Amino acid sequence: MDSNRIVMEEFQVTEDAKKKGGSTKGKKAKEKKGDESGSSGTSVKIIHMDPVNMEIDFIGFPISLINAYRRIVLAEVATMAIEKVYMYNNTSIIQDEVLAHRLGLVPLKVDPRYFEFRNKDETEWGAQDSVKYELKIKCEKNPRASEHETDCDVISLNRKVLSSSLKWVPIGNQPDIFQPESMQPLHDDILLAKMNPGHLIHLEAYAVKGIGSDHAKFQPGLCWYRFLPEIELTREVEGLEAELLQKCFSPGVINIVDKPDGKKVAEVSDARNDTCSRNVFEYDDIKDSVKLTRKTDHVILYVESHSALKSFEILDEAVNIMIGKCDTLLTEIENHIEGSAA
Amino acid sequence: MGETVPGNLVPEWSTLDPSTISEPVKNIEDKWKLVPAFLRVKGLVKQHIDSFNYFINVDIKNIVKANSKVTSDVEPLFYVKYKNVRVENPNIEESLNITDKSSPHECRLRDITYSAPIMVDVEYMRGDHRIFRKDIPIGRMPIMLRSSNCVLSQCRTPSELAKHNECPHDPGGYFIIKGQEKVILIQEQLSKNRMIVEEDKKGGLTCQVTSSTHEKKSRTNVTMKNGKYYLKHNTLTDDVPICIVFKAMGVTSDQEIVQMIGTEDRIMTSFAASLEECARLNVYTQTQALKYIGNKVRQKRFYDRGPKKTPVDEARDLLATTILAHVPVEKFNFKMKSIYLALMARRVIEAQGDTRTVDDRDYYGNKRLELAGSLISLLFEDLFKKFNADLKKNTDIILGKKGKVSQFDAVQYMQSRQDAITNGLEVAISTGNWTIKRFKMERQGVTQVLSRLSYISALGMMTRVNSQFEKTRKVSGPRSLQPSQWGMVCPSDTPEGESCGLVKNLALMTHITTEVDPEPIIKLAFNCGVEDINLLSGEELSNRDVFLVFLNGNIVGVTREHRRVVRIFRAMRRNGVISGFVSIYPHNKHRCIYISSDGGRLCRPYIIVESCRPAVTEHHIKQLMRGLLSFDDFLHKGLVEYLDVNEENDSNIAMYEREIEPKTTHMEIEPFTILGVCAGLIPYPHHNQSPRNTYQCAMGKQAMGTIGYNQRNRIDTLLYNLVYTHRPLVKTRTIELINFEHLPAGHNAVVAVMSYSGYDIEDAIIINKASLDRGYGRCIVYRNAKCSVKSYANQTSDRVPGPVMQVLDNGKQKPIWKHETLDSDGIAAVGTPVQPRQVLINKQMPTVTQMSFTDEQTARQVEFRDTPVIHKGPGNIYVEKVLLSTDPEGCNLIKMLLRQTRRPEIGDKFSSRHGQKGVTGLIVQQENLPFSDQGIYPDMIMNPHGFPSRMTVGKLMELLGSKSAALAGSLKYGTAFGGTPVKDIMEELVRHGYNYQGKDFLYSGTTGEALKAYIFFGPVYYQKLKHMVMDKMHARSRGPRAVLTRQPTEGRARDGGLRLGEMERDCLIGHGASMLLLERLMISSDAFDVDVCNSCGLLGYSGWCHYCRSSANVSSIRIPYACKLLFQELQSMNIVPRLRLENYCS
After folding, report:
1. Would you say residue A34 has pLDDT above 50?
2. For the whole model, what pTM was predicted?
3. What number is the ipTM of this complex?
4. What's the Cα-to-Cα distance from B313 to each of A295, B246, B250, B278, B303, rounded to whole Å?
């Protein structure tokens, strides 16, 4: 471990003065998972992983690489979302365009990896590139509601149109490949519209595969990272000052330890949890006691899924896209060399 | 009234115990709760409604009573007498004698007037019979929404309002004339019937009184000229020495005159010259004086009726009725008027050498606001008088005829002439031209169309005050903020530019009084020791202790104990014996007590403070919160009272409890109420530079959002809606009070205050594309298309046929492209997208609409020509609704609501609530934007250069407040002169692990590295303004040309050219770019090849000179068509322009 650090001062972020020369390091690490002990001091640690959230530490990698993955997640990892809506009837209060826009933003359970990107000039909806949904719902008076009922949700049936009423309509050979459960919206309680008795919505919607840079509805999830914070106490902080210091950081960052001589001394227990609020600088008497730094070669990457892809699948896809990009580059280089040689 | 009052008349505060003073006054928590209680009772537009109610229920009866009898000059037995008048409930006359109840929304949709019939009970003579008839309509009165006669005033709950398709938050107070919502703006003017001493242009002093009664309006001046005093009036050709006027009024002795004016040495010496002049003119008796004046009366040029009067009679009439018309003269008893005149003279004398006694015209106590009710009453009286005059004229003609066929029935005639009053009122309100013949008054722009851009703009319009002052004059006085406007008029809300300071807005708690009956007040005055002036000789007036008592500018009497009178009046008012809107204050310099009960005074409630203790205690507030007390109870209990500007300036008002001193008489209810509706939206306005608040007041009215709960039922010409509106995270008390939270206009956008790209210079903002994808700033523009299908005199009528079909190759039929949108009924179908130039309503009109008497046969085969309603303008538009109805003329009306959804694009305008507007400079992909440790990406990036020069600290505070509100899940307050303290907000940020200054550690979205600076980052409430690029962009290569000049048309709406103006032309001349000039000014504009005959110099045609009858010397040149046109126009007025052609190069 070396000191690729930035210092968080009161008013600005600076490079660490102690920084040693030759900071450019870290080779391309294509294969990451399970590559715990990289040959050149790089390592990847999965801190937490579930289908929705994921937290990974990248140690010793250049930040541009991690950033590239982040950018790919946001812009290039494909998902399915409703793109075209055929409105047959809509007598509800919500406007056609707004309803269509809302439908587009509904995340679907459909795994995009089974689908192809739809050709722009295509006029037919193919089984290989689109998923069809139908929404046909009518709001009626609830015959069983009591006369004195005032709650609109009780008076009328189907007052709320939820994402669960979007019904999958298979195209072509789709019933052979997919289960109906895996084609529904991801959440079945997304409110799409509200209706009053007599209102009717009838529409057909087609979902296609798309990428986040085209429209935010295709984003598979959110991705960001942060540098690992480090707190260094430059002098001993004790007593009331220690308590104050503890309060300036997130809970669990600073511990107060009873020294054998009876002093209560502050001690950094886990800087990782710090939100980097830099609130120490508010207090003149203790702001000299700490040095706040962040390790630029220790990056904590977060992936948060809100689509059919699980958090790790998103990262997986991102890496695949990266590999694809690298391959393209390599082929181009090879082609060029061949071309110039010939 | 007039009963004995329970409780002591002498309030406790007269006997103060010094020991209680030292105790600190406890703060009354939540006393702001009085503000919503006030608004529930009085509301923001209550002044309009109150004033209209007063007119409709009281004043209209007085007007009819005053003009109740119509007689005939021909037939002495004939008379028509109005017994009673009523304004009924609004209805619609569907056809003859079929009426239907109407609701305001129906009138809006069907383009009809929301009005009610005016019914009278009449007693009249038909032949020899006296007839009494009830419920005779004489016209229709437009009804103000939510006034006592409006159907909405009966609605108690929102659901009842919903049945009428009305929004519960809609304030009402406007009229619906032919489907348009019209507001009668509050008109500000100088008070009538009050003396005002001022310096004229030459530095001389005058005392001016504008008298105004129901019949007359006149202006009387007393001026000083060469040390002598004169009366000036525009019915007199010359200034009349004031002593002569006194003598004409019967005050013939010089001693009496001097006694009335004042017996102080200073006053006597300066008046001596005037007495002398009178003697020099040999005027000693009343008759002499009247003769003198009678000779100076300006002769009326026309309209000479009745027997000619002698100059003496004429002068006496003039003095009695026209000069100082508001001072009553009964049986030519001029006592009151002479004292009044003497006082005017005294004021002028006193003002000499003492500039403090010169009155300030801009002082708000000298101002009266005219509201809808009083304006309509002026108009109605005029129309009613004209109605009666017409009736009389007609009666005279018919009864004068010999050999009557049938008996003349006056009521029949009245019923047939209803239009006079109906149209008079309707036209005045719809055009805003107020013409009142008897006052020779003509005013433009009294009404305006209610702006429905946003809820705030509609509400702001209802509180607008228009000043009757020329906009062109460059005087700063009327425009600048007057200290007496405190609490009455919003100090921030005024437009910029020419009408700056002349158009004002009422503050939140301002109420405008309506007239209170003066009779009981006079009675009360006499009861508490005021002596009638008629009983005094005049000498008493000069006594130091004697105070004159005025009521509405008229002298009531005198009193020796002015303090007691004032005290009793105030106690009576607090006990509810007299109206709460009667104001009384002593003026020690004038030695007068002024009581006012007239309408149009600005007033405002205050908490009464007695013996250093506010009358309102926490106990009262608790009861108020529990609903046991209402605001009116606070008034009745004497805890709170209304003060008008004059009395406010005679009171000692503490702002807060801690500022209460022994002298304190009142306390403010809440300081934020000095702001108006629009300024009330701004969070922390007291931390902003003042002009920024003014800018926001103007911009809040352009913000898109929600108009009302009934917005989807409206078919307006233009209506903007924001799709997903937020309520602001940092709100104010005003926001809660005016229900802005229910009808918001804006979004809480996460803003990073940093520089990005360079597309953010000059206040441009960067927007996150993903935010736009998710619906940020998305808006819907509604427009309407309408047409009426008319029938014509020659039995033809318009028609709306179905689409024109074309036959395809395969034999099928398909509508032509233009008609693709149409249903078979010729009207575009609901839900259809319409492209530009496609037809919305396929209307056709008969080519001949005139009645032709010659040929009956041709009328059979009617030819039609297309007059369709086409969708112009950019972008597709969807048909949302189609309405078919009939308009008041009985024609079929087709209205269509069209909708267009827009997402923000580069160039669209956004603004925060701090006058910080900016256009979108760049839309950036989300991955390129910076992000924080928590993975938050901004919706917007704002350049920090917007802050230093604007000094909008309130915006910084709003950001902090919103951030902590979002983190804590609770809304914060940014109320003016209060709000959540920034320290609390910062501490909350720290609790949630954020930097206490709101600055976050951000990573660059492009390089991935940490940014070198901490970025001020958090949500701010942003408004989308109505100015959008789509409505403004314009370019043209070729296009339509004007018929006359053949030059390109002007303006975007006509797809016009882009003008190369004079200054641009000058530039090109300066550069010597002659070919470019030629191209811009001629070739690209109106080049025209013309044949010129070089022998005669005139224009020829196709190589032939018609003048010379030869083609020998004709050559073709290219000139601007406008030039050719000029030559021909000159020829048509006998000027011959001749062209001489020469070879350019030879």
Report:
1. no
2. 0.89
3. 0.92
4. 106, 16, 14, 21, 18
